[in-house]
Amino acid sequence: MRYVAALVAVLGSLLIPAAATAESASAVVLMYHRFGETDYPSTNIRIEQFEAHLAELASGAYHVVALPEVTAALTSGRTLAERSVAVTVDDAYLSVYSQAWPRFQAAGMPFTLFVPSDAVDQGQANYMSWAQIREMAAAGVTIGHHSAAHGHMATWSRARVKADIERANRRFREELGFVPKIFAHPYGEASRTSLTVVAEAGFEAAFGQHSGVAQANLKSTYLPRFALNEAYGGLSRLKLVASALPLPVSEITPADPLLGDNPPAFGFTLTRTLEGLSRLRCFPSHEGQPAHLEILGGRRVEVRPGKPFPPGRGRINCTLPGQGGRWHWFGMQFYAPQR
Description:
Blueprint: H1 2-15, E1 26-32, E2 34-35, E3 44-45, H2 47-57, E4 63-64, H3 67-76, E5 84-90, H4 94-107, E6 112-115, H5 117-121, H6 130-138, E7 142-145, H7 158-176, E8 182-184, H8 192-200, E9 205-207, E10 214-215, E11 226-227, H9 235-242, E12 245-246, E13 249-253, E14 266-270, E15 281-284, E16 292-296, E17 300-304, E18 312-321, E19 327-336
Parallel strand pairs: 1-5, 1-11, 2-3, 4-5, 5-6, 6-7, 8-9, 12-19
Antiparallel strand pairs: 1-10, 13-14, 14-17, 15-18, 16-17, 18-19
C-alpha cells in the first residue's frame, strides 16, 4: 500500500505544478492578544506597531482574507491567492474593542476574535462584555471558540476537555445564538487526547500558537499561527512572517504534542523535493543553536534536540531560505509535563 501511495504522489506531481501544491493551499495566520497595554509586553502590541502592521497589510503586497475563507480552502484543498494572510486575536481583552477594532474597521480588514467564555461571564477586569462581543459579531467580526476556562488542556482528561467545550458551547448559544466553528487551543497547548475531543466536537479547524504557515498538508485540528507582541512585533518581522512560504510536510512525529519521550524524536517527510535543502535549520526554543538534523532519502528529516525541554511549552521552528528573500517555515509546539 505504501508503494501505491508513493506512485500516486509521483504521478500527481507530474500533473500538478509544484507551485500549485502546498503553496497554493496555504496562508499565513497572524495572532494578537492585547493592544496598547504596555504592562503586558509578552502579549501586547504597541499601538504604533499595530498601525504600522495594518498599513503594511493594506499596502497591496498581501491578500488579507477572513479566517473562515482560509479554513474552508485548507479543508477542501481549494487554491488561495498568493500571500494570503488572515488575522486573529485571542482572549477578548477590552483593548480589542477600544483600540484594535476601530483601526480594523478604518482599514476595512477582517479578523477573528477567539473568546474564552468564563472570563467574559465573570466580568474579569479588562475583558469585553457579551454585549460588546455581540456588537462586533453583528458588524461582521468572526467569533471563534477559545474554550470556557482557558486552561492547560494538554494535561486534562478526555472528560474534562469535553465538558469545558460543552460548557462554552452553551454560553455561546445563550449569548450569541450560535457556536463558533473555529477553535483556538488555550496557550496553544494540546495533546493527542485534546485534539481528538476537538475533532469530535465538530470544529471546522483549530489553531495553536506555534509558528508556521497553515497548509492543507497539516492536521486541521492543530494549525499554526505567527504570534506578534512588543518584542516580536517590529515591521521587519511582520514582513518576514507575512511573506512566509509553507515547508510542505507530512508524517510528522511524534504524533502527540504531549511529550512522553523528552527530548522528542522529531521528524517529518517533505511532500516534494525542495532546492537547497542542505540549508534547512531547526531551532528548539530552549537551545541557543540549531538542533542536530539528518536528511534521509532526500525527503525525510529527523531532528534531535540536544537536551530535554523544560516543563511546560516548548517549540521547534524549522526554516529554509526560499525564492525572492522568502522563507519556508514549519514549527511545532510541544508540552513537557512535570516529572
